[in-house]
Amino acid sequence: IITFIIVRSLNKSMDLVFSRYFEHDWANQRSEKNLKPLLSLLKFILWIVGIIFLMGNLGLDVSTAIAGLGVGGIAVAIAAQGILGDLFSYLVIFFDKPFELGDFIVFGDKSGVVERIGIKSIRIRVLSGELLIIANSDLTSTRIHNYKQMVRRRVVFTIGVIYETTAEKLEKIPSIIKDIITTVEAIEGVVFDRSHFFAFGDYSLKFETVYYVPTNDYNIYMNTQQEIYYKLFKAFENEGITFAYPTQMVYTKKEATTTEVVPAKATAEVDV
Length: 272
Description:
The chain is of the alpha+beta class. The chain contains seven helices and eight strands, in the order ααααββββαββαββα. It has helices spanning 2-22, 26-57, 62-79, 81-96, 136-140, 167-182, 218-239, and strands at 104-107, 110-117, 121-126, 131-135, 144-146, 153-161, 191-200, 205-213.
């Protein structure tokens, strides 16, 4: 009974210490949720130690049990290398914090919101709606883009106009784009960086533009980009500037030909 009370008290103390530590900050509360699987594992180990201690107090030979646990532990470790790898990856995720619950991450060709971080696997709600379950070791061994921690988004887009555009109109294009971006209404704080005529393409004269959106919200970014494109299309229409699209011109060379008219040979039949 005393052993049971001690183990229960230690478990309660662990819960109390961690809840007091994490209760003041939302970010810390998310870390507490990440830590729950590890706490469960620690409690399980604590119960095993308590049971062995109880067996020793009852006069049972625990040395054999401990030796058996050691040999069994080695066998289990060899057989469960993948699980142990996921466990260590879980510890890496918890202490290094490359992402947390609620973060939007992109890895490989997948992207979504982290919903649960477990000892063995991570559950991610992808954009198409389904729940993606991936092993911790697989996720920590790949390159991860965490958009939740992004302060502002750098946007680069390229447009092309036809080669028939006059030099005067070409010089106007960077200032037209700058005026549009600096007066965007979707969100305040959009920062224009640059717009340059940067390449002679196969079928177009290319301009590259860079600007910054002060948010990590994807919908706000798309609203901003959409507003810029609408205004840009309208401005080019007013200026008589034509967007380029893949075209191919074929020139056919016509050769002059003369036709010689040859009269038909007269023929006559002679009766002999």
